[in-house]
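> call design_seq(struct)
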C-alpha cells in the first residue's frame, strides 16, 4: 500500500474542518441543514452537505475541543466513512496545522492487508495549499513500512526475512548492505549477538547498512529480536503473545532510514544502520541464567535473566558502531516493560546526556506530534547493574527503575560516540486511535528527523 494524495482537481469536493463551537462557514448558505443534523463540531462528526437535488456538494468535519491534546484527529474524516471521491480542505481553521492534517489523512489510509486482501477504495484528499506533498507522502510511506514489518508475524518475519526487507530498502535507496551471520559472528567478535540467537533455527545476524560517504556521521542501532520467548526464563503466554513486535526497534530504524533518504535529510551526512537480528529461542544450546558472557567491548556480563536479551544484542552492535566514533548514535528498542508502566504505550522515554541535543529532540517531538519524554541516566543507579562476579548485570534484581538501568547498561557501550540518545519504545498501538489502528506503530522517527538539523548540523 502506497500512501498518496489525489491530484488537484476542479471537481474535488470541499470539506470544512471546524473546532467545536466554531461558526459555520458562510459558503454553505443556509445553516438549517447542519443544525437539523445536530452538527456541533464534535471530534469526528461529519455532516454531508447536499444540493437541491440531493447530490453531495461538500462536508463539515468536527475537530472537537481544541484544548484536548488528541493527535491526528483529522484522520477521523477518512475513517468515519466520508464518501469515496476526491476532497479538498476548503479552509484551514486556526490551530490546525496543515502538515499534521495532511499526514493524519494519509496515515488513516493504512490497512495491514497481507493476510486479508485489499480494502475497498476510500476517499482521497488533495494536498492542502502550502504543504510539501512529497515530504508528507515520504513520512507516511516510512510509517507504513514500520507498521507492516511489526505487524507481520514471526513465521513470516524471522531474521532472514528481516534481512530481506532491509536489503530491499537499502537497494531502493542506493545504500550498501553487509550481513554477518551465524558462527561468523564469533569470528567477527560479536559474541553477545551470537549467544542470544544461537538456539534458533534461523541463524542470528548483524545487518549493516551505510548511506553517504562524507559529512558528520549518524549511526542508528535498532533492536531486531524477531520473536522473544524469553529464552530459558520463558515468558508466560500473556507476555509472549505480542513478541512479534520485539523487532520494533529495527522496524523504526529502517523507517527512519527511508525517511532520511527520501526527504533529503541524509544529504551531506553519513548514515549507518545496524540491526542485530535474532530470535530468542529455547533449545539445548540456549544461553542460560547465570552464564557470564564476554562482549565485543571486553566487558563481561552476568546473565541473570535470559528475557533481558535486547540489551545484550544492542551492546555488541553499539560497541562496533563506536569504533568509528559517530557524531551521533541513536538506539531504538522495545526494551523494557518499566517504560510502559512509567509513561504508557503512547510516550516513549528517551535518554541523553547532552542537554542541547535533548532539548532539540524534545522540541521536535512536540512539533512533529511524535511524542517523547526525557528521562535521566541517573548515576546513583550505576551500582545496580554491577553484579559480584562480572562487570555488568543484564537484569538487576528488585524491579525498580528498570528502564533507567537498561539505559545505563547500554550507555556502557556508547562511550566513543560523540553524543548518544536511547529511545525505549513500545512499537505497538494497543487500541485504535485517529490514524493509528491497533497494531505496529512508528515511535520516534519523525521527531528525530525534525530535530536532526539542530542535533547534527
Amino acid at each position: 500500500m502506497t500512501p498518496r494524495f489525489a491530484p488537484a482537481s476542479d471537481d474535488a469536493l470541499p470539506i470544512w474542518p471546524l473546532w467545536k463551537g466554531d461558526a459555520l462557514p458562510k459558503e454553505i448558505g443556509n445553516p438549517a441543514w447542519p443544525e437539523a443534523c445536530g452538527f456541533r463540531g464534535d471530534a469526528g462528526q461529519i455532516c454531508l452537505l447536499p444540493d437541491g437535488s440531493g447530490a453531495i456538494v461538500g462536508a463539515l468535519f468536527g475537530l472537537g475541543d481544541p484544548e484536548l491534546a488528541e493527535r491526528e484527529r483529522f484522520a477521523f474524516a477518512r475513517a468515519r466513512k466520508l464518501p469515496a471521491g476526491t476532497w479538498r480542505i476548503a479552509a484551514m481553521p486556526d490551530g490546525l496545522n496543515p502538515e499534521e492534517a495532511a499526514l493524519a489523512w494519509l496515515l488513516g489510509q493504512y490497512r495491514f492487508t497481507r493476510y486479508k486482501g485489499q480494502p475497498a477504495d476510500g476517499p482521497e484528499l488533495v494536498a492542502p495549499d502550502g504543504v510539501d506533498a512529497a515530504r508528507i507522502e515520504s513520512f507516511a510511506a516510512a510509517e507504513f513500512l514500520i507498521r507492516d514489518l511489526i505487524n507481520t508475524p514471526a513465521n513470516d518475519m524471522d531474521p532472514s526475512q528481516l534481512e530481506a526487507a532491509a536489503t530491499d530498502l537499502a537497494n531502493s535507496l542506493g545504500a550498501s548492505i553487509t550481513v554477518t551471520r551465524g558462527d561468523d559472528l564469533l569470528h567477527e567478535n560479536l559474541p553477545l549477538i551470537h549467544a542470544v540467537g544461537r538456539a534458533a533455527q534461523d541463524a542470528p545476524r548483524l545487518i549493516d547498512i551505510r548511506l553517504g560517504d562524507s559529512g558528520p556521521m549518524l549511526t542508528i542501532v535498532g533492536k531486531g529480536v524477531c520473536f522473544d520467548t524469553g529464552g530459558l526464563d520463558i515468558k508466560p503466554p500473556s507476555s509472549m503473545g505480542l513478541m512479534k513486535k520485539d523487532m520494533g526497534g529495527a522496524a523504526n530504524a529502517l523507517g527512519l532510514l527511508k525517511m532520511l533518504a527520501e526527504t533529503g535529510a541524509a544529504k551531506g551526512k553519513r548514515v549507518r544502520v545496524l540491526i542485530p537480528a535474532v530470535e530468542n529461542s529455547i533449545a539445548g544450546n540456549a544461553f542460560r541464567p547465570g552464564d557470564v558472557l564476554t562482549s565485543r567491548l571486553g566487558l563481561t556480563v552476568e546473565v541473570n535473566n535470559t528475557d533481558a536479551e535486547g540489551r545484550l544484542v544492542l551492546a555488541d552492535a553499539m560497541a562496533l558502531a563506536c569504533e568509528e566514533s559517530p557524531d551521533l548514535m541513536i538506539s531504538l528498542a522495545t526494551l523494557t516493560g518499566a517504560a510502559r508502566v512509567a509513561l504508557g504505550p503512547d510516550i516513549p522515554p528517551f535518554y541523553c546526556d547532552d542537554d542541547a541535543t535533548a532539548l532539540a529532540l524534545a522540541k521536535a517531538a512536540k512539533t512533529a506530534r511524535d511524542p517523547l519524554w526525557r528521562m535521566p541516566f541517573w548515576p546513583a543507579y550505576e551500582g545496580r547493574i554491577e553484579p559480584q562476579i562480572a562487570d555488568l548485570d543484564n537484569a538487576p534484581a528488585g524491579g525498580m527503575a528498570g528502564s533507567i538501568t537498561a539505559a545505563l547498561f547500554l550507555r556502557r557501550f556508547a562511550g566513543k560516540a560523540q553524543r548518544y540518545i536511547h529511545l525505549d519504545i513500545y512499537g505497538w498501538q494497543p487500541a485504535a486511535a485517529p490514524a493509528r489502528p491497533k497494531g505496529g506503530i512508528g515511535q520516534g522517527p519523525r521527531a528525530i528527523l525534525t530535530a536532526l538539523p539542530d542535533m547534527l548540523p
